[in-house]
Amino acid sequence: MDEEEENINPDALSEEQRPEGSHFYENEEEDPNDTITKVTGMYKDWFLDYASYVILERAVPAIEDGFKPVQRRIMHSLKELDDGRYNKVANVVGHTMQYHPHGDASIGDAMVQIGQKELLIDTQGNWGNILTGDGAAASRYIEARLSKFALEVLYSPKITEWIASYDGRRNEPNNLPVKFPLLLAQGAEGIAVGLSTKVLPHNFNELIDASIKILKNKPFQLFPDFQTAGIADVSNYNDGMRGGRVRVRAKIGQLDKNTLVITQIPFSTNTSTLIDSILKANEKGKIKIKKIEDNTAAEVEILIHLFPGVSPDKTIDALYAFTACETSVAPLGCVIEDHKPRFIGVSDMLRISTKRTVQLLKQELEIQLDELEENWHFASLERIFIENRIYRLIEEEETWEGVINAIDEGLKPHITHLRRAVTHEDINRLTEIRIKRISRFDIDKAQEKIEALEGEIEQVKHHLEHLTDFAIAFFTKLKEKYGKGRERQTELRIFDDIEATKVVLRNTKLYVNREEGFIGTGLKKDEYVTDCSDIDDVIVFLRNGTMMITKVDDKKFIGKDIIHVDIFDKNDKRTIYNMVYRDGKSGPSFIKRFNVSGVTRDKAYDLTNGNTGSQVLYFSHNPNGEAEVITILLRQVGSIKKLKFDIDFAKMAIKGRSSKGNLVTKYPIKKIELKEKGISTLLPRKIWFDDTVQRLNVDGRGELLGEFRPSDKILVISQTGKLKVIIPELTTHFDPDMVVLEKWIPKKPISAIYYDGEKERYYVKRFIVENEGKEETFISEHPNSQLEIVSTDYRPVAELVFAKVKGVQKENLVVDVEAFIAVKGFKALGNQLTADKLKQVNMLEPLPYELPEEAVAEVTEVPEPTDIPDEDVQIDDEGQITLF
Fold this sequence. Notes:
The chain is α+β, with helices and mostly antiparallel strands. 25% of the residues lie in helices and 27% in strands. Among the domains are: 349-465, Topoisomerase, domain 3, CATH 1.10.268; 506-676, DNA gyrase/topoisomerase IV, subunit A, C-terminal (Neuraminidase, 6 Propeller), CATH 2.120.10; 686-742, no CATH class; 745-849, no CATH class. This is DNA gyrase/topoisomerase IV subunit A. It catalyses: ATP-dependent breakage, passage and rejoining of double-stranded DNA.
């Protein structure tokens, strides 16, 4: 073929020009008989196959046994290798690879996770530390074997469904016959394609108790429990389903006034990540700490050293607000059921598990019954065969068939009481009985064996008839055998919301340029106002009577002639602003007291009547509602006679910010002077203690502690014999072991009965708090010393209940504590109460006591801010204010 023929374009040829029978293909290898498959369809099918594989075979646990496939294969391999001794984890991993079509790394990691949960695997060696995040040693250095619990609840080969392994060489369990809610006990987490699962772990004993309640048709509740302990708020748990959320906090205590100690950490964190988050918050200025020490070993101990003057309570709240000391966990219950993913709550998971456990127990009992009946059947046949000498009938038989028939005929007169027909297999077994056994056959022992089997059969039948009771007994036995040491570790508590603005460290400074009208943290050459943080709000008042709330910024223009700037707290109802302003350029002057709350950020609010030329003549900011006395000096206008008079803000009603106020005078004011600083005109603040969140509040939640003035304090006494008097700040944290929390009355004595560990005697003491600014211990510091009871009644009465000694019970003794001992010093040992061993000490009804008149006298004060109409204000002939 020449060059011209080689370059023929087939599309350019007409049908006539093309050679007969010739065909042109764009690809020489293309075959017209092949079907065309679109690549998009192939990818769709492959993706679905891959997604299904990941969901079913890797990431999501099965509802039946709570295992992912790799976990199930590990437990199966451990059972096959089990001989009571430890096996190298590397050997277990290698054995598991016979069933698992993936690498040894995934098997080893999964096995370490199971071992760290300390339930199914008895470990030996360095398996890592869930508290610190340290990894396990190499698999060749660590060993494992099945725990006794796993051997009891995981395996039952006779009722296990078997399937072929991935290569068809071996059989593996489709699901293990787990007779326990293992999925809920261990938890599970996995990310598949298009879905994920996160089942939180729950308490071993609580799961058993809940399973028993299900069997008894009683209501139950399940809440998570974590190995890392900590404190959890499960109010939004939502039964572990999508949309739920669990807040988890570290347990933080106060070692001393400059040291905090973290003893428990939140779930899903470790000490390394926790410390990193604290250091980052410190670098960003959210908190202020001196240094951190990590002393964690078997238990968590992280010491946080604070700078002098830094509030421990605010630092604790800041740690929760800005670090990993508080985390939020979103549960998502997803399991594999009937080869499909199903979203389900933990309550339904437990119901399914409990129902499955009952069915597994039933299957085991049925198999056991069949085996017992078979044993009874053959034992009865054996007795008939030997006792009636049927074996002699085969002596003259020459064929095997004749032997079988002879035995069959010989048995017929004696088998009417048997529970099933005699088969050829039964007769074959009889022929296998040895002569030695026949010669030593004991009829009495044979009968005892038969009767024992009958007793076991009746017992198994009873269990089958009362299957629920049998299942309850099974769960109860599990709790008795394995429940010790598995008590709840995570404390459940409702958390109080922490306002970041109240606990954030104010690590920068706020400045103001009053004339130009700028505020900000970058105006370092201008007037310093206060310390602030980058998330604070600022309240600004201008001379023209406008007010604005805005965020802290580097530099922001508000308006010229700024008269007041401060950090704004929207929940502060006790800060009162006192103001006198002129309405318009030459209008009358008004006086008002108001509180600011419920405003829109960056919106200007006019505190005057809104007339052009209005001006603030006097302004004061009072954090606790103080009311001063001011002197008004008027300009000489016309025939005005009284140019000077005083006004007491205490006589002014506290109204809203938009109120007009009360008329001061219609004449021009020359000057306003402060004559006398005032005291708070607000009623004492009522404070409650909410034991569900262990916090103080002013919202009426919990127990009312009393009405508090600025100088009032709270008395706190703990079970360890420590006492302190504190300012009632709402950010204060309280230890759960406190026994007294009440308003402190300085002259009220405290009575305590305690055991002195050094002297081995019981003492009683009465004392007054001497050092209110320091936490002190009022019992002896011997490690065996302990506080029995404490009272803040004026005239307490105690009842001593003595322990029985050598069968002798001493009568209870009632002690009038006031008559027994006088009030002494704080450090006094007290008077010996008894040397006998006490069973307990009870406080009885105290004796009557009348408070001195000065202690119960009431002080009449102006109530909290309210809007009072202006009708009660009258104006005299001079055009000046007259109150009431």
